[in-house]
């Protein structure tokens, strides 16, 4: 298994920026894809962005493309989510998740970090 710990959430005004971090430990050699998801208040969890661990290919939800940037540092076993031009509708709990090699889906999740964007 892989253990994930997110950090970097907080309160920011609309138009501002935040950078989330997610540090992985455990079976990091088996990581295939790392991703960010979010759950707005009263809504379902949704995909935000993902990055392949070996090749650094990136994937984004359409509504985040251009404002959010996902990146990873293999030496630190850490994935980042740079969020710019934040909007009140970006308010959510943000979760980091990892999909291991040969696993069909994201199987390990962090505890989440709260992001609140004030208008």
Description:
It is built from no helices and eleven strands. The model has no long low-confidence stretch (mean pLDDT 95). It is an all-beta fold and 119 residues long. The chain starts with a strand and ends with a strand. It has strands at residues 2-7, 10-13, 18-26, 31-39, 46-52, 58-60, 68-73, 78-83, 92-100, 108-109, 113-118. Strands 2, 4, 5, 6, 9, 10 and 11 form a seven-stranded mixed beta sheet that branches. A four-stranded antiparallel beta sheet has the order 1-3-8-7, with no helix packed on it. It is globular and about 40 Å long.
Distance between the termini: 39 Å
Note the beta-strand portion: over 45%
**Number of helix segments?**
0
Spatial extent as radius of gyration: 13 Å
Biggest sheet, in brief?
7 strands, mixed
What percent of the residues sit in helical stretches (DSSP H or I)?
under 10%
The overall strand count is 11
**Which sequence of SSEs, written as H and E, runs from N to C?**
EEEEEEEEEEE
- Globally, the shape reads globular
Structural class: mainly beta
Uncertain segments are none
- Average pLDDT: 95
Describe, in short, the structure shown:
By secondary structure, the protein is mostly beta strands. It has strands at 2-7, 10-13, 18-26, 31-39, 46-52, 58-60, 68-73, 78-83, 92-100, 108-109, 113-118.
């Amino acid at each position: 298994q892989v253990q994930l710990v997110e950090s970097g959430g907080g309160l920011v005004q609309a138009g501002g920026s935040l950078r989330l971090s997610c540090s992985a430990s455990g079976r990091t050699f088996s990581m295939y894809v790392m991703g960010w998801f979010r759950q707005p208040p009263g809504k379902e969890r949704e995909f935000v962005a993902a990055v392949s661990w070996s090749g650094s290919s990136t994937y984004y939800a359409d509504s985040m493309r251009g404002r959010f940037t996902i990146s990873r540092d293999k030496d630190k076993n850490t994935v980042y989510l740079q969020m710019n031009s934040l909007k009140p509708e970006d308010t959510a709990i943000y979760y980091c998740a990892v999909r291991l090699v040969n696993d069909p889906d994201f199987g390990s999740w962090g505890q989440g970090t709260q992001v609140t964007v004030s208008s």
